[in-house]
Amino acid sequence: MLKIERTENPEYILVTLKGEADFNSELELRREFEDLITKKVDIVIDLEHTDYIDSVGISLFTYLKKELIKKNREMAFYRPIDSIKKVFLMTRLDLLIPILEKVEDLEKFGKEK
């Protein structure tokens, strides 16, 4: 099961995912991402409370990033747990979507534009 929380501010939308980003949560994540694409700010995905991600979750993150590129917007991951960070490094997703580790990184991300 996946719980999605959203915090909006002028620089970016922080989307906190709690649970598993996988096949079972695909429809819920897709709906959330479709709505995020319509917004006019950058997106940060907080993964501190995400326990698991599979290939469906990775493909949805890739889809979101590609759609944001078309709109000249950015996306980043924030505080992924070690096992998820390893998946991003192994799949090289970190080269497409930056990983922010600290609050300072998040604050800088919001002010880069």
UniProtKB/TrEMBL annotation:
This is Anti-sigma factor antagonist. Belongs to the anti-sigma-factor antagonist family. InterPro entries: Anti-sigma_ant, STAS_dom, STAS_dom_sf. Residues 2-93 form the STAS domain. Pfam families: STAS (PF01740). One of its GO terms (molecular function) is anti-sigma factor antagonist activity. It comes from Muiribacterium halophilum. Transmembrane segments: none annotated. CDD domains: STAS_anti-anti-sigma_factors (cd07043).
